Amino acid sequence: MNFLRQTRMHGKANAQLLIAIETLGGGGAERVALDLARAWPHEHARPVLLVASRSGAYADRLPPDLEVIEIGVPSSPRKVIPFLWRLRKKLAGRPIAGVVSHMTGMNRMMLRAAFLGIVRAPVVVVEHNDFLRNQQVHAMPQLRSSLLIGETAFLYRRASAVVGCSLGVARQVAALFRLAPDRVHGIPNPVEPRFAVPSPMQPETAEWFATLQRPVFVSVGRMVQQKGFDDLLRAFALQSHGSLVILGEGHLRNDLEKLTKELNVADRVRMPGFLPAPEQILQAADVYVSASHWEGYPLVLIEAYAAGLPVVARDCDFGPSEIVVPGRPGDLVRGFRIEDLAAAMASIAATASRATPGAIPLPENDANSVVVRYRALFDGTDQIRSPDTEENKR
Length: 394
Prior knowledge:
By secondary structure, the protein is an alpha/beta fold. It has two domains: 3-190 and 366-392, Rossmann fold; 193-362, Rossmann fold. It has 15 helices and 13 strands. It has helices spanning 3-9, 28-39, 80-91, 104-115, 131-134, 142-156, 167-176, 203-209, 229-237, 253-262, 279-282, 299-307, 320-323, 338-351, 367-379, and strands spanning 16-21, 46-51, 67-70, 96-102, 123-127, 161-164, 184-186, 216-220, 243-247, 269-273, 287-290, 311-314, 330-333. A seven-stranded parallel beta sheet has the order 3-2-1-4-5-6-7, with helices on both faces. Strands 10-9-8-11-12-13 form a six-stranded parallel beta sheet, sandwiched between helices. Helix 9 crosses helix 14. The chain is globular.
């Protein structure tokens, strides 16, 4: 008998599913958490969002009926005791039927809570990135990295299931933490339907967008080293014409603005920051470009396809090779040479056309289908194939 049904049968008809995430920042993991909360059927269990901090770009875009529990303490290793103390008080008396936790820090904290009996429900944890690179394990002293991997392995073995947002992430997690293959699953991220529905551009955005020279290349993400925006600017500088729009914010903004001037492309590059409706730009641009050095399952590539854009992406670990596949317009760039990225940008801009929003099939990213896969983890049904399943290998 599955746990969620059992909870309801014992008189707790208001069973709650905790969806845990660190903050409401504008990243892909945060969007996935909110998408799951929106799509989860209330008759199964009412979704409740649990955050360490109710801050970030999505803080004012929450569904009106979504309850949010804010702990008020970060899920960092130095805050374990105050976090768990507040968590215990916040969850007291709640009929928690299950937990879906996102990202390593929150995952570790929720599994500690389950180990200590603060959470008495199955916990599913979701890894959204290349663990080794995202945690900068290579830069740690050996003792510290061994402790990090060892403790995470200890905790993840106690999860009801471990999900990688791509098969690549799932395989890495299974190998790194020596998890049983049947406990690790690859489930792709859902895409919001709004990206596949034609969206008129807001007047203030349309005013500056109309001045851009075609083709318009676009990229979205935090302005951090991982996203490779410096490489993207250098590749764009090799284009004889066109414009580049980078949506997002981050600590490298000043460096990137300086680089546009050094490359003499400042007049062809726009960086308007975080936009609450990026689908308006995606649906009007010509080519989406990802220059990331590593990923987990870059949700924005799916959003670009939903908006009808051809995609140029570096074949980094992990995710792009599972998204930019035969039958979808675009090019997967092997290696990290600037010239190769620039050549792919020019080629796709010249040969691929933008499609109507929603015209590129993305059945595996339908929000309702993704929720069914997550529900299967709690139901105990065999609807999700493990990452080492032969037919899932590429």
